[in-house]
Amino acid sequence: QVQLVESGGGLVQTGGSLRLSCAASGSIFGINTMEWYRQAPGKQRELVAGISSGGNTNYADSVKGRFTISRDNAKNTVYLQMNSLKPEDTAVYYCNADVVYSASWFRPVRNYWGQGTQVTVSS
Prior knowledge:
Helix content is 0%, strand content 57%. It is mostly beta strands. Strands 2, 4, 5, 6, 9, 10 and 11 form a seven-stranded mixed β-sheet that branches. It has a four-stranded antiparallel β-sheet with strand order 1-3-8-7, with no helix packed on it. The radius of gyration is 14 Å and the shape is elongated. The chain starts with a strand and ends with a strand. The model has no long low-confidence stretch (mean pLDDT 97).
């Protein structure tokens, strides 16, 4: 089994910063893409940022220039540095990862979600 555990959420004022972390643990033989999603009340879950195993990144237009995704492969951890936060960034943030869960030669992959961490930006 694999678990993703997020941390770092909280309450911050407009213009402030937070750093989210998501650590994967369990039966892990590699992690492909790692992503951050968010879901605000009454809205659909949306992709915020993603990073490949090789370090290629992509961002939602709404966070470009303010958020930075990174990962530490040795720690099976992905980070989301969030700067210049706005009230519209308020949401539950979820980590998502494609995990290689077996040492088999064909490297089977399964997708996992974390439990989410609340980010609230006050105006």
